[in-house]
Amino acid sequence: MKQITQTGATKEEAIFLALQKLGVTRDQVEIEVLQEAKKGFLGFGARPAEIRVTVMEPKEETKAQEEVALEEKEERATVVEAVEENKAVIENAELSNDEPKEDYLDPIESAKQYLTDIAKTMGIHDLKIETETEGKTILFNLESEKAALLIGKHGSNLNALQQLTQLVVSKNAKTYVTVRLDIENYRERRQIALEKLAEKMADRAIRTGKKVSLEPMPSYERKIIHNALANRLDVETYSEGIEPNRHLVIEPVK
Question: Which of 53, 174, 182, 221 meets the CB 3.0–4.6 Å disulfide criterion with 217?
Fold first, then answer.
């Protein structure tokens, strides 16, 4: 059991210094106040705060959660690698295929087959796909017990799969069409979440008087933030950085 005694001008300062020395976070320790800080008068009678900080042993449940998180991280990495590898294969095939094929492949059916195949490489064998066509847009609605894996963090896997499906459809379609992938109405739920985030971060920018930088996100998600704040006269929004790390900034209008 790791334990140290630390002093500081205030209790919070002592805690901060102790956590820095131990290299842990506040929720990983137990804190015992040995002496409260006292300011004194004209420099006399002042005394520092003194605390004892004990690092708690991780519970079995916490260890299990950490192991699951690590497995999920490795699984996501495998998915991203698979997606990038398949994307490269399709792009290379397009570059090397200068002459049109004589055999026509239905773009929707070929895309559905491709999605089914790549899902299997991700360990998903229950994928169901329904399609809707609206003008020049084809919507692929996916369904699976492993929806979370298909979606990925903030939709990263779903976005990558959408890019791949766009490549497959474009390769076989006679005219250009736009492909959209969705699963369990994730796109709508994500839009609502982004609109709420936009208002929250805009309010923070006004409250602090400082600009707020959001995490990197694809262009269409940045556009959602832009549109959500378009009617606010107290903030302005703009993008900074280079893809894939381009992010949106919310700045108060002075």
Answer: 221
pTM above 0.70?
A: no
Instruction: Dump pLDDT digits (tens) for 110-130.
Output: 999 999 998 888 889 999 999
**Pick from 166, 160, 158: nearest CA to 190:** 158
Confidence of residue 39 (pLDDT cuts 50, 70, 90): confident
Between CA 239 and CA 214 the distance in angstroms is 10
Q: How far apart are CA 169 and CA 33, in angstroms?
A: 65
Cα–Cα distance, 192 to 171 (Å, whole number): 33
Query: What is the edge-to-edge ordering of all strands in the sheet holding 212-213?
Result: 212-213, 247-252, 235-240
Three-state helix/strand/coil letters over 8-73: ECCHHHHHHHHHHHHCCCHHHEEEEEEECCECCECCECCECEEEEEEECCCCHHHHHHHHHHHHHH
Q: By the 8 A CB rule, do 11 and 36 touch?
A: yes
The residues, any chain, with a CB within 8 Å of residue 53's CB and separated by 6 or more, are 3, 4, 5, 6, 15, 18, 19, 22, 29, 30, 31, 32
Give SS3 for 142. strand
CA distance 121 to 155: 19
CATH of 188-252, one of 3.40.50.300, 3.30.1370.50, 3.30.465.10, 3.40.630.30: 3.30.1370.50
